[in-house]
Amino acid sequence: MTINLAMALVVAVLYAVGFYLLMQRSLMRVLIGVVVLGHGTNLLLQLAGGPPGRAPVIGLADPSTFADPLPQALALTAVVITFALTTFLLALGYRSYVLVGRDEVQDDLEDARIARQKVPSAALESDDDTDDPDTGEVSDR
Question: Is 29:18 a contact under the CB 8 Å cutoff?
Fold first, then answer.
Protein backbone atom coordinates (compact mmCIF):
# COMPACT_ATOMS: atom_id res chain seq x y z
CA MET A 1 0.00 0.00 0.00
CA THR A 2 1.45 3.34 -1.02
CA ILE A 3 0.16 6.79 -0.25
CA ASN A 4 0.01 9.33 -3.04
CA LEU A 5 2.70 11.98 -2.50
CA ALA A 6 0.39 14.82 -3.53
CA MET A 7 -2.22 13.76 -0.98
CA ALA A 8 0.44 13.44 1.71
CA LEU A 9 1.54 17.02 0.94
CA VAL A 10 -2.07 18.20 1.13
CA VAL A 11 -2.41 16.58 4.58
CA ALA A 12 0.86 18.20 5.69
CA VAL A 13 -0.29 21.62 4.50
CA LEU A 14 -3.66 21.22 6.22
CA TYR A 15 -1.96 20.30 9.49
CA ALA A 16 0.56 23.16 9.19
CA VAL A 17 -2.16 25.74 8.49
CA GLY A 18 -4.37 24.32 11.26
CA PHE A 19 -1.63 24.45 13.89
CA TYR A 20 -0.59 27.94 12.77
CA LEU A 21 -4.16 29.18 13.18
CA LEU A 22 -4.46 27.51 16.60
CA MET A 23 -1.56 29.66 17.85
CA GLN A 24 -3.34 32.94 17.07
CA ARG A 25 -5.02 35.13 19.69
CA SER A 26 -8.30 35.53 17.80
CA LEU A 27 -10.91 32.93 18.70
CA MET A 28 -12.26 32.91 15.15
CA ARG A 29 -8.82 31.98 13.82
CA VAL A 30 -8.60 29.25 16.46
CA LEU A 31 -12.01 28.02 15.32
CA ILE A 32 -10.92 27.93 11.68
CA GLY A 33 -7.73 26.14 12.75
CA VAL A 34 -9.76 23.43 14.50
CA VAL A 35 -11.93 22.98 11.41
CA VAL A 36 -8.88 22.76 9.12
CA LEU A 37 -7.24 20.23 11.47
CA GLY A 38 -10.46 18.20 11.44
CA HIS A 39 -10.45 18.11 7.64
CA GLY A 40 -6.77 17.13 7.64
CA THR A 41 -7.48 14.33 10.09
CA ASN A 42 -10.37 13.01 8.00
CA LEU A 43 -8.21 13.03 4.87
CA LEU A 44 -5.37 11.29 6.71
CA LEU A 45 -7.71 8.58 7.97
CA GLN A 46 -9.08 8.00 4.49
CA LEU A 47 -5.57 7.83 3.05
CA ALA A 48 -4.51 5.36 5.74
CA GLY A 49 -7.51 3.17 4.89
CA GLY A 50 -6.08 2.38 1.49
CA PRO A 51 -7.84 2.16 -1.85
CA PRO A 52 -11.58 1.60 -1.93
CA GLY A 53 -12.66 -2.02 -1.90
CA ARG A 54 -15.81 -4.01 -2.41
CA ALA A 55 -18.68 -3.96 0.05
CA PRO A 56 -18.33 -6.64 2.71
CA VAL A 57 -21.30 -8.72 1.62
CA ILE A 58 -20.73 -12.39 2.39
CA GLY A 59 -20.84 -14.72 -0.56
CA LEU A 60 -20.53 -12.19 -3.37
CA ALA A 61 -16.80 -11.41 -3.36
CA ASP A 62 -13.46 -12.69 -2.16
CA PRO A 63 -12.85 -11.56 1.46
CA SER A 64 -9.44 -10.14 0.50
CA THR A 65 -11.18 -7.51 -1.67
CA PHE A 66 -13.45 -6.23 1.12
CA ALA A 67 -13.14 -2.62 2.22
CA ASP A 68 -11.81 -1.95 5.72
CA PRO A 69 -14.59 -0.26 7.74
CA LEU A 70 -12.29 0.99 10.53
CA PRO A 71 -11.03 4.16 8.75
CA GLN A 72 -14.60 5.17 7.94
CA ALA A 73 -15.63 4.65 11.56
CA LEU A 74 -12.67 6.69 12.79
CA ALA A 75 -13.44 9.45 10.27
CA LEU A 76 -17.03 9.57 11.48
CA THR A 77 -15.81 9.87 15.06
CA ALA A 78 -13.42 12.67 14.02
CA VAL A 79 -16.30 14.51 12.32
CA VAL A 80 -18.40 14.34 15.50
CA ILE A 81 -15.52 15.53 17.69
CA THR A 82 -14.72 18.38 15.29
CA PHE A 83 -18.38 19.42 15.20
CA ALA A 84 -18.63 19.45 19.01
CA LEU A 85 -15.42 21.45 19.39
CA THR A 86 -16.55 23.87 16.66
CA THR A 87 -19.86 24.58 18.40
CA PHE A 88 -18.08 25.09 21.73
CA LEU A 89 -15.59 27.54 20.19
CA LEU A 90 -18.41 29.39 18.41
CA ALA A 91 -20.21 29.82 21.73
CA LEU A 92 -16.97 30.90 23.41
CA GLY A 93 -16.24 33.43 20.66
CA TYR A 94 -19.77 34.82 20.78
CA ARG A 95 -19.64 35.19 24.58
CA SER A 96 -16.27 36.90 24.35
CA TYR A 97 -17.60 39.27 21.70
CA VAL A 98 -20.69 40.10 23.77
CA LEU A 99 -18.72 40.71 26.99
CA VAL A 100 -15.60 42.42 25.66
CA GLY A 101 -16.56 43.61 22.17
CA ARG A 102 -13.89 41.58 20.38
CA ASP A 103 -12.91 37.95 20.10
CA GLU A 104 -9.25 38.38 20.95
CA VAL A 105 -7.95 36.53 23.99
CA GLN A 106 -6.74 38.98 26.63
CA ASP A 107 -3.60 38.63 28.71
CA ASP A 108 -4.19 37.26 32.17
CA LEU A 109 -3.24 40.02 34.63
CA GLU A 110 -2.50 37.59 37.45
CA ASP A 111 -0.07 35.61 35.28
CA ALA A 112 1.68 38.84 34.26
CA ARG A 113 1.99 39.90 37.92
CA ILE A 114 3.50 36.56 38.90
CA ALA A 115 5.94 36.74 35.98
CA ARG A 116 7.14 40.16 37.16
CA GLN A 117 7.82 38.98 40.70
CA LYS A 118 11.41 39.05 41.84
CA VAL A 119 13.23 35.72 41.74
CA PRO A 120 14.65 34.49 45.07
CA SER A 121 18.04 36.03 45.84
CA ALA A 122 19.44 32.92 47.54
CA ALA A 123 20.91 30.34 45.20
CA LEU A 124 19.20 26.99 45.23
CA GLU A 125 21.22 23.95 46.24
CA SER A 126 22.47 21.90 43.33
CA ASP A 127 20.87 18.58 42.61
CA ASP A 128 24.31 16.96 42.41
CA ASP A 129 25.11 16.26 46.08
CA THR A 130 27.64 13.54 45.31
CA ASP A 131 31.31 14.39 44.99
CA ASP A 132 32.38 11.07 43.51
CA PRO A 133 30.12 9.97 40.66
CA ASP A 134 31.54 6.42 40.67
CA THR A 135 30.93 5.56 44.33
CA GLY A 136 28.17 8.05 45.09
CA GLU A 137 29.85 9.13 48.34
CA VAL A 138 28.99 12.53 49.76
CA SER A 139 31.71 14.55 51.42
CA ASP A 140 31.05 16.94 54.33
CA ARG A 141 31.21 20.49 53.13
Answer: no
